[in-house]
Amino acid sequence: MNVAIHPSWKEVLKDEFEQPYFENLISFVKQEYTTHTCYPKGSTIFAAFDHCPFDKVKVVILGQDPYHGPKQANGLCFSVSDGIPKPPSLVNIFREIQDDLGKPVPESGNLERWAEQGVLLLNATLTVRQGQAASHQGKGWETFTDAVIKKISDEKNDIVFMLWGGYAKKKGAKVDRSKHDVLESGHPSPLSANKGHWFGNKHFSKANGLLEVKGKTPIVW
Length: 221
What we know:
Layout: H1 7-12, H2 14-17, H3 20-35, E1 38-39, H4 47-51, E2 59-63, H5 88-101, H6 112-115, E3 119-123, E4 128-129, H7 141-155, E5 160-164, H8 166-171, E6 181-185, H9 190-197, H10 203-213
Parallel strand pairs: 2-3, 2-5, 5-6
Antiparallel strand pairs: 1-4
């Protein structure tokens, strides 16, 4: 399986790639992609890492599963490729940015432009079968992404972690809060957002404020 991943991550995660669980995980993923339709396409499974080198990471946003509809998932959490209709969670993310920062909603739901500014858009599970949410959970991806979060927490300083919903908050247990900033709220999915757990969190202006205090360039959301 030919996947793209930035060389900086290959170095940081080389020990992880050699673990037995990771070898088992990759065998499982290859088998799934051979026998079922799975997302994202194989070459973009590690797109979050390819578009955002380790040394450029300033912000981490955690998702759960890739989108499981045709052509939606592009390897970055919450993101869809150009020309694909925005899923409900992404609609609510852009609505909050509009309310928070006064920015118009962009035509495209492709968040590669965030990644290239230093936002790691990391799903806990990096692959999924078509139409079957959570179908690749419990196979090893969560162990891998926990290790990624711990690496960032241990080896970097002053990262802004944006944790949306209960699942992301649990995943954030790996973050050393004495050296990083953590923003938490409900999930942007309609179920949570419409109950008042998402809108008004002002995470995008807060993240930029935290970056600026540390002398970092804010994100153009």
